[in-house]
């Protein structure tokens, strides 16, 4: 039998998964299998890839159409499929990506019924993600009560931030009830912080800004490889412009929309989470590849604004760090868009970043010149592996 860890990332209508083998030296970095079930609650679609990216299964399973039972149906299907696909695999634990661990948890936790209830209390802080993350936990507990489940929080890595970086200038009572900056994408930043010495040696402990640029986008300021500031705050809406989210916004805009446009909570939520960002500004797509391929002025302007906002936020994070030694690009856009990296690096020349255009075009790992005061790097992130490693560590305790 091969012992494997099941990594799960449950969204409103999707369940992403990956399986990592436990080895004597830890967790193999290459997932044995990975994929997703999407269209949950409607027409489900299952796709699974092997270790080399080859498609090993694709189907449209008939799952419960009832959204409330969607995750249970999806997990039951996945566990059955795994058992028949490879009888030699034994799932020994599950690691979940859980968006919110509140202000209390700065590390992964074993999920007990009491913890699940406590995390459920954080739903108002992340209503679009937390309920679905927890639905998968509950569904798996019902299907496999004996299976250890570990929660890995997107907020945990940022708990090292100094108190001021976590505060809003709101009345103290609101802050005490939890209205404060939490920060997200923590598992991605933790992975980058972990591998940084391989790229920078002792300078990894200096002043570093990591740009996680995917559909969701944020940046994190690291010192001593710990988070000291981040662009996302109370929710995953703040900071950088994203695929469909607005990022940093004058709160007066919300007051205006409520007062003069009659927008309520649902309308505002839809606008800010789903109809803004690259999609809203371009009117074409939320997808950077589509925008880069488009000749439309609105597509070009959306990319320009995306990069402008990043450059501005880099300035803010560099101020929090008191200077800058390295800038790291990661996630879908950061790892693949030479155009975005060029705009961001040239816009950050004032910090001492000397950009190497040729290295950038060939997607090299280092895209600054050898004499640049600020080293610019491209490092692929691996949140699933981070979750698998945390889960293995918790199992060993
Ligand atoms: P998620 O936040 O959903 O995990 P990803 O990290 O996969 O997102 O990033 C998705 C984004 O990366 C999309 O905007 C996509 O267009 C962009 N992207 C992926 N490949 C490329 C590429 N070759 N060039 C430019 N953008 C890319």
Report the total helices: 14
According to CATH, the fold-level topology of the largest domain is Nucleotidyltransferase, domain 5
Number of domain modules = 2
**Distance, first to last CA:** 22 Å
How would you name the CATH homologous superfamily of the largest domain? ATPase, nucleotide binding domain
Mean pLDDT across every amino acid position:
96
* Rg, alpha carbons: 21 Å
Which stretches are low in confidence, meaning pLDDT under 50 for 5 or more residues running? Answer: none
CATH first level of the largest domain: Alpha Beta
Number of strands: 14
How does the helix and strand content classify structurally?
Answer: alpha/beta
* Topology as a string of helices (H) and strands (E): EEEEEEHEEHHEHHEEEHHHHHEHHHEH
| Portion in beta strands | 15-25%
Indicate the percent of residues in helices: 25-40%
Tell me the overall shape. Answer: globular
Task: Name every ligand kind in the structure.
Answer: adenosine-5'-diphosphate
In this structure, how is the largest beta sheet organized? Answer: 9 strands, mixed
Task: Please state the second-level CATH architecture of the largest domain.
Answer: 2-Layer Sandwich
How does the SSE layout of this entry go?
Blueprint: E1 2-10, E2 14-23, E3 26-27, E4 33-38, E5 45-50, E6 55-59, H1 70-85, E7 89-98, E8 109-110, H2 113-120, H3 130-143, E9 149-153, H4 172-176, H5 186-200, E10 207-213, E11 217-223, E12 226-230, H6 251-260, H7 265-274, H8 277-282, H9 288-293, H10 297-321, E13 326-330, H11 331-336, H12 338-347, H13 357-361, E14 375-378, H14 383-396
Parallel strand pairs: 1-7, 7-9, 10-13, 13-14
Antiparallel strand pairs: 1-2, 2-3, 2-4, 4-5, 5-6, 8-9, 10-11, 11-12
Adenosine-5'-diphosphate is lined by residues 214-216, 243, 287-289, 292, 331-333, 336-337.
């Amino acid at each position: 039998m091969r012992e494997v860890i099941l990594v799960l990332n449950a969204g409103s209508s999707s369940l992403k998964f990956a399986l990592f083998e436990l080895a004597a030296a830890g967790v193999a970095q290459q997932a044995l299998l990975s994929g997703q079930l999407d269209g949950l609650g409607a027409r489900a679609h299952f796709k699974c890839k092997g270790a080399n990216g080859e498609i090993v299964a694709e189907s449209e399973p008939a799952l419960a159409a009832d959204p409330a039972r969607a995750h249970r149906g999806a997990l039951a299907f996945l566990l059955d499929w795994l058992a028949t696909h490879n009888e030699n695999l034994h799932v020994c634990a599950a690691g979940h990506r859980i968006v919110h661990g509140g202000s209390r948890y700065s590390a992964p936790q074993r999920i007990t019924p009491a913890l699940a209830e406590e995390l459920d209390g954080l739903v108002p802080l992340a209503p679009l993600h937390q309920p679905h993350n927890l639905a998968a936990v509950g569904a798996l507990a019902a299907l496999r009560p004996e299976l250890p489940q570990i929660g890995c929080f997107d907020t945990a890595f940022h708990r090292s931030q100094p108190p001021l970086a976590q505060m809003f200038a709101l009345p103290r009572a609101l802050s005490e009830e939890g209205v404060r900056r939490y920060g997200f994408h923590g598992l991605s930043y933790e992975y980058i912080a972990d591998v940084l010495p391989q790229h920078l040696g002792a300078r990894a402990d200096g002043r570093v800004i990591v740009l996680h640029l995917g559909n969701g986008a944020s940046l994190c300021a690291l010192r001593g490889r710990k988070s000291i500031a981040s662009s996302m705050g109370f929710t995953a809406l703040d900071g950088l412009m994203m695929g469909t989210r607005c990022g940093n916004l004058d709160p007066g805009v919300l007051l205006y929309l409520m007062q003069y446009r009659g927008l309520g909570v649902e309308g505002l939520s839809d606008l800010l989470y789903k109809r803004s960002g690259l999609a809203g500004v371009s009117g074409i797509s939320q997808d950077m590849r589509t925008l880069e391929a488009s000749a439309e002025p609105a597509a070009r302007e959306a990319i320009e604004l995306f990069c402008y906002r990043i450059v501005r936020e880099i300035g803010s994070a560099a101020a929090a760090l008191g200077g800058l030694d390295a800038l790291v690009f990661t996630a879908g856009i950061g790892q693949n868009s030479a155009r975005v990296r060029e705009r961001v690096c040239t816009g950050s020349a004032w910090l001492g970043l000397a950009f190497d255009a040729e290295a950038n075009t060939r997607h090299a790992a280092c895209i600054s010149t050898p004499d640049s005061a600020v080293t610019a790097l491209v490092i692929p992130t691996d949140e699933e592996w981070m979750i698998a490693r945390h889960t293995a560590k918790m199992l060993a305790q």
